[in-house]
Description:
This protein is an alpha/beta fold. The protein is built from 15 helices and 15 strands. It has helices at about 40-55, 60-65, 100-110, 125-130, 140-160, 165-180, 180-195, 225-235, 255-260, 265-280, 295-315, 320-330, 365-380, 400-410, 425-430; strands at about 1-10, 15-20, 30-35, 80-90, 90-100, 195-205, 210-220, 240-245, 285, 335-340, 345-350, 355-360, 385-390, 415-420, 435-440. The strands form three sheets. It has a six-stranded antiparallel β-sheet. Strands 9-8-13-14-3-15 form a six-stranded parallel β-sheet. Strand 10 (about 335-340) and strand 11 form a beta hairpin. Helix 11 crosses helix 13. The radius of gyration is 26 Å and the shape is globular.
Amino acid sequence: MHLQRIRVPDFRVLKDVDITFENNFVPRIFPLGSLNGGGKSTLLQLIFTLLHCSNAPEKKPFLQNFLYGFKLRDDSTKRTLAIIDIWENSKVFSLDFFCCKASYITRQWQVNDDLILPKHFPLFLTVKILSETSIEFDNIDHTKLANKIENRIINYYKENKIAIKDTKNMVKGYLNLLINIKPSLSKIRKYIESNCLIFISDYRVENKEKNIFLCRIDGLNIPKISDSKSFVNNLQKKIFIAVPSTQVFLFMAQNDRELLLKSDSNQKNRYYSQLQSTKAQLRNLFTYDFFAVDILIQAFKDARDRDFREAIETGEYGNHYQRLKNELNQMLFNKKINIDKDLNGVNFTLDRNGETIELSPEDLSHGELKRLSIYMWLKHYNIEDAIVLMDEIEIAFHPDWQYQIIRDLQEWAPNNQYILATHSYELCQALTPAHVKELEPKLIKQDPEN
Length: 450
């Protein structure tokens, strides 16, 4: 899987962005450069949030946080956030993420040609139901439909503060209305399927009317709702992001982001607590500021368990545990890593003149621990044939290691595509100039003579 092209017309600092990542380039590693404030981090977060959160209901809040402040133009009923082209199995799939108003929907699907909708008719909800279910309205089963959408209808009215005096009659009335407008619903269904549309979310801007956020997919052979959702569901498993934890995350709530600008230590602790909670929910998010001890320990436990299973199945212990130790020790050069006997921690030793010296945490450099953490993250989560976004990977690396990290990524997981937001000239020079992509203002190395 490969991100081939990203277009962002106008989102925050990103203006008229149009970048192509060639699928025939080897290695599939693309530095992304600009001066500070060019939007590198914003672009990576945009790609990750759209591709990872769009088809998961439990991740809907992160997407809504990201859309905070994304308004429709006064003279428009539709606005594109981004168009992302994905290359897979020699085919290109284009995902157009856009928001729109109800008036855009009614005009596109010609609902108003057939009927006048009631004042509080939940059109957003109806579109969502039609895009998520396979109900055929020509042969509608009243009871089946009621069971599927009753709670959604009730929640919709509550969210929009519409009084409900009699829940059962309200639901019954809504269902009867759906049956009475079958021709219009059939048009909506046909439009959704023929255009491979997915209802992602609704969101409100500044307490005004809700907007709808949709994704249109081009390139699928058979335009079915199930195909569209299956494609996006597979895509969300193949997108990863690694960033410094000091970065401002646009998919976190605005109130939480503002805590970073407060001096109160309790508020700062609250922010980092929220960040930990976010990481627990977005499992494809990795922050590499600190040594990934938890990942490392779990990897040793998994290797031990595989060895034990092989012993039961074959009568002989496997060598997964020892192989993992050997791989890590090769990365550490003259140091060795060991797991504590209780499997609750790791320790390091140094062989010097035939003597084994135990090392303290401060005896290991930030760069060594970071390199080890990135390696373990890729290996432990079996990140392969994926799109891996990495921001400021060069932090804590000597210039030689900034150059070397390109070769490391090639060796550790060569089937991945890597997009590296960076300020490092050394990292960029490890690849051909055509690999390097830039945002305005561009990362231009100054001539020392000028």
